[in-house]
Specification:
Length: 136
């Protein structure tokens, strides 16, 4: 599969159950909060990953992906593009099945590393928008 392939998006939405949301903020005005809340309301398990938070949306927050004590289906990244590669590398190392870089998060080299490692990859797109589009 390729980056942002419609089949990739469909597979991620259908098969991911546990989603680490990197950069999830407890501030309801932040896009990460809105997106994670939507995913949670639609049956996904959200795991906040943010060293500045202790709990978001009723879930314990972890400082890094490496601190999450369970397997991850998807790593959803709400960080600046220059930070995304580090989180993609962590996702690969931890055996996540997919990475999703949200709107405006672009790192072609990191996306290719994830593909080469066998992960499904979406970049510069919104998981909420894609979920809504496919569930109409």
């Amino acid at each position: 599969m390729t980056i942002n392939d419609p089949n990739t998006i469909e597979t991620i939405l259908n098969q991911s159950r546990t989603i680490a949301v990197v950069g999830l903020s407890s501030n309801p005005m932040r896009p990460s909060y809105d997106v994670a809340g939507y995913l949670q309301r639609n049956g996904y398990r959200i795991i906040p990953v943010n060293p500045n938070e202790t709990e978001v949306l009723g879930e314990k927050a972890y400082a890094s992906l490496a601190d999450v004590p369970e397997p991850l289906d998807l790593v959803d990244i709400f960080r600046r593009s220059e930070e995304a590669g580090h989180h993609v590398n962590e996702a690969i190392r931890l055996g996540a099945k997919a990475v999703w870089m949200q709107d405006g998060v672009i790192d072609e080299a990191a996306a290719q590393r994830a593909l080469d490692a066998g992960l499904l990859v979406v970049m510069d797109d919104c998981i909420l928008r894609q979920h809504v589009r496919r569930r109409r």
